Task: inverse folding
């Protein structure tokens, strides 16, 4: 799991650094990879882990729409058999050229129990380089299995997003 995360981050950094030679800072549209540190509250117990995934963001003048697919691995041995996946839809507003606030609606699955459910949250994204953003988000999710057993958890994430394509040509700074 760590090797996959390291590979994703390394390839994204190489792509971001090589692409940052373009000095025309633009608003980003397009595909991105994300790697995030995550803190989860699972049934009253705090668990840490990593969330990583890929997605696509589309920016208009002031609005952002995004779709992401994320996987989460946790570092707590007692929960090591839990595998979470999330299909996430983001809709946001660009406050500044470099800062976007957004809302989150997601469909989350856990493959080993199996359970699924819906999550809701908020996030902010700050563009620090043309191809790199810092993001942080909070999400709460309610899941159920086929026997109507329920499971709720909250996540707080902070991480990096590596973008691979620029969009509308508007200068950020």
Result:
């Amino acid at each position: 799991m760590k090797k996959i995360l390291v590979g994703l981050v390394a390839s994204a950094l190489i792509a971001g650094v090589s692409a940052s030679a373009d000095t025309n800072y633009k608003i980003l549209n397009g595909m991105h990879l994300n790697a995030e540190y995550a803190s989860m509250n699972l049934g009253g117990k705090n668990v840490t882990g990593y969330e990583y995934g890929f997605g696509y963001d589309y920016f208009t003048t002031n609005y952002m729409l995004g779709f992401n697919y994320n996987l989460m691995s946790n570092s707590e041995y007692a929960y090591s058999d839990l595998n979470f996946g999330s299909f996430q839809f983001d809709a946001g507003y660009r406050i500044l050229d470099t800062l976007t606030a957004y809302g989150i609606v997601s469909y989350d699955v856990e493959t080993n129990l199996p359970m699924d459910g819906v999550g809701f949250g908020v996030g902010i994204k700050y563009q620090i380089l043309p191809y790199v953003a810092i993001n942080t988000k909070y999400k709460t999710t309610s899941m159920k299995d086929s026997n109507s057993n329920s499971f709720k958890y909250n996540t707080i994430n902070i991480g990096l997003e590596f973008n691979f394509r620029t969009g509308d040509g508007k200068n950020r700074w």
Remarks:
- The longest helix spans residues 2-19.
- The chain is about 10% helix and 60% strand.
- The domain at 2-163 is CATH 2.40.160.20 (Porin).
- Confidence is low (pLDDT under 50) at residues 8-26, 168-173.
